[in-house]
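Colleagues,

For the teaching module next term, I've prepared a clean inverse folding example: a structure given as tokens, and then the sequence designed for it. I'd like students to try predicting residues themselves before seeing the answer, so please don't circulate the second half yet.
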């Protein structure tokens, strides 16, 4: 199955039909370890699906994995509503900025020639923020790329 995106679709569909004992056996065959104790069927199914997809499409890069491990282990963040952003300087081409505004979630992609949002390309994040809100905004601040204390 490794390297074959078509076969992964079939395998993922089959996983949802398996009972917990069979999922645990499948987990062992994929990872070489026993399934984590106390994991419910739905979570094990999702973990196994992730593992299988990572084998075919590739896993997280090392920086992202370290960032997620840090966030998961930082007890101060347990109840936080916002998480710290990864290195802001690396939010270059291909980065996707997400912002909720008036109950609607907006996704903006950093492209070679600007920022793509809602089928149009804009020269700056500030232009995108203005298109979304109808008023002037500092784009990086609107999308959470600047600390509010420093920007104020």
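(Answer key — instructors only)
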């Amino acid at each position: 199955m490794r390297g074959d995106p078509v076969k992964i679709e079939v395998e993922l569909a089959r996983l949802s039909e398996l009972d917990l004992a069979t999922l645990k056996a499948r987990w062992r065959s994929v990872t070489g370890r026993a399934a984590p104790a106390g994991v419910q069927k739905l979570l094990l199914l999702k973990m196994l699906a992730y593992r299988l997809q990572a084998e075919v499409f590739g896993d997280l890069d090392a920086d992202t994995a370290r960032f997620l491990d840090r966030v998961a282990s930082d007890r101060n963040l347990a109840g936080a509503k916002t998480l710290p952003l990864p290195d802001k300087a690396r939010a270059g081409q291909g980065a996707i900025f997400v912002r909720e505004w008036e109950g609607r979630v907006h996704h903006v992609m950093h492209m070679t020639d600007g920022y793509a949002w809602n089928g149009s390309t804009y020269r700056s994040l500030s232009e995108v923020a203005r298109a979304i809100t109808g008023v002037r905004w500092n784009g990086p601040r609107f999308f959470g790329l600047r600390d509010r204390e420093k920007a104020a």
